[in-house]
Amino acid sequence: MAGRCGGGCWRATRLPASRAKNARAHVVHLSEPAREVLETAPRFARCPLAFTTNQRTSVAGFSKYKAALDRQLAKQGTPFAPWTLHDFRRSGATWLAGAGFPPHVCDKLLNHVGGTISGVAAVYQRAEFLPERARALDAWAAAIFAAAEGKAEGENVVALQAR
């Protein structure tokens, strides 16, 4: 696992418990497109952080970035329905469920505690589902890039002639 280096070593990143809302460490698989973004993003020399403005701490204050983006979209006259940054999480979870990924995998991806595996089952079932989470995020990345490239879902399906 490598979350704080460049040069092709990104596979997953670990959010320490101290930075997680539920105080539980969280491993996030990085899809190939995500790794490409991280490996090509400009960085400060000798700074291990992927996203920083001061070389000492990770980026914070995302609401300011969101407000700036909203202003830029409005200035360009780009029609955009109201949205929040949390909509990215919701959209991902919704798409993954629709694509057949089980709810417990989505819960683990979102670092939810007490989701679909709760009560007594949660006492015994402690799996992190890392391979399943990796497959889910790879599929989500592929869907995002297909949409960005204007490819409709199912465009790679070949119609077969009936005999």
From TrEMBL:
Transmembrane segments: none
Keyword annotations from UniProtKB, A to Z: DNA integration, DNA recombination
The protein, known as: Tyr recombinase domain-containing protein
PANTHER family the UniProt entry points to: PROPHAGE INTEGRASE (PTHR30629), PROPHAGE INTEGRASE INTS-RELATED (PTHR30629:SF2)
Pfam families in the record: Phage_integrase (PF00589)
UniProt GO MF annotations: DNA binding
Ranges where the Tyr recombinase domain occurs: 18-113
Organism: Acidicaldus sp
Domain of life of the native organism: Bacteria
One GO BP: DNA integration
Family (UniProt): Belongs to the 'phage' integrase family.
InterPro entries in the record: DNA_brk_join_enz (IPR011010), Integrase-like_cat_sf (IPR013762), Integrase_catalytic (IPR002104), Phage_Integrase (IPR050808)
